[in-house]
Amino acid sequence: MNNFIKNRNNMFKNHIKIAWRNLWKIKSYSIINIIGLCIGMTAVLIIGIWVQNQLQFDNFYSDKENIYKVLNKNRNDEGKISLQEYTSGQASPALIADYPEVERAARIYWSISKLLSFGDKKIKSKGNEVDPAFIQMFDFKLLKGNNNKALGETRNIILTESLAKSIFGEKDPLDQTIILDNKEPYKVSAIMQDLPGNTNFDFTYLIPLVNAEGYSPNWNTIAFTTYIQLKKGTNVDAFNNKLIDIIKKKTNSELGGSLFLYPISKMHLYSKFEQGIPVGGKIDQVKLVTGIGLLILLIACINFINLSTARSQKRAKEVAIRKVVGAQRFNLIAQFLTESLLLAIISGTLAITLAILTLPLFNTIFDKPLVLALSDPTIWLALIGFIFLTGILAGLYPAFVLSGFKPIKSLKIFRSSKKIALNFRELLVIFQFGVAIILIIATIVVRRQIEYAGQRDVGYTTSQLIEIGMEGDMGKNYEAIKSELLNNGIATAVTRSGSSITSNAGSAWGGFSWEGSTPEQGKKMGFNLGRTESDLIKTLGLKLIAGRDIDYARLAADSSAVLLNEAAIKEMNLKNPVGTYLKWGSTTYTIVGVINDYISGSPYNPVTPMLIYATKKSLYNLIIRTNPGSSVQDQLKQIEQIIKKFNPAYPFEYQFVDQKFAGKFKDQQQTARLAFIFSGLAIFISCLGLFGLASYIAELRTKEIGIRKVLGASVSGITTMLSKDFIKLVIISIVLASPIAWWAMNKWLQDFSYRIEIQWWIFALAGAAAVLVAFVTVSSQAIRAANHNPVKTLRDE
Questions:
Q1: 748: closest CA among 447, 499, 531, 518?
Q2: pLDDT of residue 402
Q3: 223, 304, 371, 511 — which has fewest CB within 10 A?
């Protein structure tokens, strides 16, 4: 037994020694394989870190199986079902009161940035108003304080650890008093661990929700994100059936809406619905990116397979001698697998280093603080397993091919160009370039879709527009601020609105009626909502189709005035809307103007009906159209002086509307950058393998090239001879990859209502780029071989 183990150890050492000698002997091919595998493994490592982060999104709560997000489910007369993530403020108390299956219910009001003051320290930070049950439902870790009492009083506040340190330093924050928005005192009741990077919640402090009625007074006004925790063992499908008519019962009307529970653990990845059924979402991107990463690794493994099998003639004598002296096929397979594993270990070590170095770059693309946790033993086990799996994947086929080699047969690399069938090595080259071409086409299509949406008419002039949050004393000093901005020539127009003009402030469905409407029309009619006081059209630069702007600042009668957009007029089938009434619930409004359709939501979707109503309350957004006659920096300094004059306690913060609108393309730009990087990697690795194959074939045909030169062949003729077989493979890959790329990108574009048509020139451009790169790669080796002195190449070995 001891001798057997000793022999096995000696054999293993011998395999490693021979493997190292072989890799060192053919350094150029080893370097090509190491670089290719290293890049492929790096891509998979980085993607794996990102995928792990995505799969754990909101998936770490102790009772995650029973926590659900409450969605609004609406069905119109045509049977189309839509889901909204916001609910009425009435939903949460009704669910907890009427349904014994509900253990907890909690509402969240939108994230709001407020000024937190403690002595001389003043910090603006984003927080949420929540029901007390929220902190118990999601069991965020409290470093100090009590879960059950943290939000028990209306003036309690929970701070995250980082915010507490920013305000108090090393001082104990518990029971200290913080002033919110320079007027409301709150007592610090708990300190929470900072939120992890893989959650959709975004806050640094929490305060109790005390004004739910003011935010959402009835069932058809939606303003909250609502979560419920069901008791263990509750059948969620049966519970959803109970909620079908809840809104109808509570309102005694035919609103047609219902509530629907959806697991919070699935909300991040499976948030796309069709007809009320989840059909995908972020998970599609996760699958796509994972697949691309694995394809890039596979391309790198193909390089190893191709170069290993191509060199089979060189290793024929080695295999023959080993077999003659009694080597079994198993021993030969073990030897060749040892070589591939050694190569994978070297590549994997370099890949880990490269992943650590490039991770900050990918963090800017993924917009997530991803880290490779090398201190975790399970990570090392996964890395070791990944390296060995890659080595076996790359080396298994060459090991079986080379170990079965029969010395009496000559294995040709490329047969006559007249042959019809393709050998396995050629198929692998076609596959490599096919993947690269698909990624090039995807990069072009994604980039063109972003540019197409970016060139879409927004409906107003985004340049020279600045938004500033209305906070502190800005509300009571609004008229004075507006007057100084206009009188000093800093602004040409000023207004205020309920929210940013680049986003939808909310929506309302059902309960509407107007001149000539039917009950059915009123039941299914829905509007995106906007709020303003005066001068909205002038400030935004909207086109007035009919009527006039709202002017509640100077006309008291405009307290019931509304503006509608063209999409609303078309949906309502109104011919002469100005001066007619619009009834919403028990309130009657007068339509004073019709404006053009402008984009407030996604630039990829059609504009939907919008209703903008007059009010002097809940106007949180100051909009300034600056004077184009002076520099932006001078204007910002002057605006800051005026704002600080009337609101000295708050820091001056602003946003350019054109930059906010550009942020709507963030997800698609992320996809475009990833497609560009991965297509570049795929082309590079494929060309690396092509370079190795071309150089090796040129080496095998050295004497043939010498004879041809002696007989008068030109350098260009020899270059063409050596290059044409490779270029033929690239052209085949273009033909095969183009329809696949068309199908994939056409499916991707279906998610956008406003989208491009895929043009033929995209495929021509991608194909030409692939052919050009492949030709340059191969011809560089072909020209080098053709320029060799035939006297030297024809010498006997």
A1: 447
A2: 64
A3: 371
Cα–Cα distances in angstroms (integers) from residue 622 to residues 180, 214, 373, 477, in the given order: 20, 22, 44, 12
Which stretch of 83-92, 472-481, 714-723 has the lowest confidence by average pLDDT?
A: 714-723
Backbone angles phi, psi at 215, to 5 degrees: -75, -35
**Three-class secondary structure assignment of 149-196:** CCCCCCCEEEEEHHHHHHHHCCCCCCCCEEEECCCEEEEEEEEECCCC
CA-based torsion, 729, 732, 738, 744: positive or negative: negative
Q: How far apart are CA 393 and CA 259, in angstroms?
A: 50
Name the band, by pLDDT with cuts 50, 70 and 90, for residue 666: confident
Question: Average of pLDDT values for 72-79?
Answer: 67
Structure tokens, 375 = 């201190």
Q: What is the mean pLDDT of residues 664-675?
A: 82
pLDDT (average), residues 53-75: 87
The Cα–Cα gap between 203 and 12 comes to: 57
HEC secondary structure over 401-419: HHHCCCCCCCCCCCCCCCC
Question: What would the DSSP string read from start to end of 102-114?
Answer: EEEEEEEEPPEEE
pLDDT at 58 over 60: yes
Tell me which residue of 499, 508, 506 sits closest to 532, measured CA to CA.
Answer: 499
User: CA-to-CA distance for 240 and 246, rounded, in angstroms?
Assistant: 10
Q: Extract the tokens encoding 715.
A: 């350098």
β-pair partners for 73: 83, 258
Among 190, 193, 159, CA closest to 175: 190
* Burial 766-788, CB ≥16 within 10 A → b, else e: bbebbbebbbebbbebbbebbee
How crowded is the C-beta side of 615, counted as CA atoms within 13 Å? 13
Neighbours of 677 (CB within 10 A): 19
Rg (CA), the chain: 34
- What pLDDT is attached to residue 413? 41
Amino acid at 396: L
Whole-angstrom distance, CA of residue 433 vs CA of residue 685: 10
- Reported as a single tens digit per residue, the pLDDT across 310-346 is 665 566 566 656 656 556 666 767 777 777 788 888 8
pLDDT of 432-453, one tens digit each?
888 889 989 988 998 898 888 8
Cα–Cα distance, 663 to 658 (Å, whole number): 9
pLDDT at 41 (0 to 100): 87
**Contact between 190 and 176 (Cβ < 8 Å):** no
**Cα separation, 341 vs 268, whole angstroms:** 38
d(CA 444, CA 756): 12
Condensed to tens digits (0 to 9), the pLDDT of residues 262-309 reads: 999 899 888 888 777 777 788 888 888 888 888 888 888 887 777 776
Provide the 8-state DSSP code for 430: H
740-759 tens-digit pLDDT:
999 999 988 888 888 889 99
